[in-house]
Structure formats: structure tokens, C-alpha cells
Amino acid sequence: MTDALVTFVRARFHEELEKARFAGNVVRTQPGRFGVEPEEAAKHARFSVASAEARLALLDDTVVPYLGTAGPGGRNAEFQLRLLAAPYVEHRDYPHDESSADQPGSPA
């Protein structure tokens, strides 16, 4: 389940990054269409892309390396993964597990 959940979350985060890049390009090139100043459009676009990149870095650099390790570090990584996946639980491709450990806050 953990490998499938990592793959799922990584795919969602990559989708969000691509959406942020696309939306940022649209807003930056057509700020008047959205009623914003060019500087504000550029700032918002940078923020959206940076946020999406940060989520990917969090997953790949601080969660995935510790999954499956013994002790508190491994348990913490598992919990963090489930927290990152929680907003997508209703997504059609979410890799549901039969156990209740599938939900954030559930005992592992």
C-alpha cells in the first residue's frame, strides 16, 4: 500500500505543479483578463509554482527516504505520507486499503 500511495501522491503533486505553471503563464501573460496588476500576477504565479515544488520536495526528500524504516522515523514518515494523501482520498485513483490504517490519525 505504501508504494502505491507514494506513486499516487507524487502523481497528484506533479499534476498540481503543471497546473500551477500553466495558470501562472496565463495570468502573467494576460493579467488584465483577471483584473490584477502584472506584478501581482507574477508574484502569485511564483508562489503557486514554489508551493507545488515544495510539496514534491517534502515528499521526495523528507518522507520517502524514511518509509519502511524501524522506529519513530519510519512511523512518522508513514503518518506524513497519509497526511499528504488525505486531501485526495475521494480521488478515483486513490489506492484504498481494506484497513482503517488508511486514514490519517488512525493507529498503524
Please characterize this protein's 3D structure:
InterPro entries: DUF6221. This is DUF6221 family protein. Pfam families: DUF6221. With 108 residues, the protein is mostly helical. The protein has one domain. Helix content is 63%, strand content 0%. It is built from 3 helices and no strands. The protein has helices at 2-29, 38-63, 72-85. The longest helix is centred in the N-terminal third of the chain and has 28 residues, at 2-29. The radius of gyration is 17 Å and the shape is elongated. 12% of the residues are buried. The mean pLDDT is 88.
Structural class of the helices, strands and pairings?
mainly alpha
**First-last Cα distance:** 13 Å
Sketch the major β-sheet: none
Number of strands: 0
Structurally, how many domains make up the residues?
Answer: 1
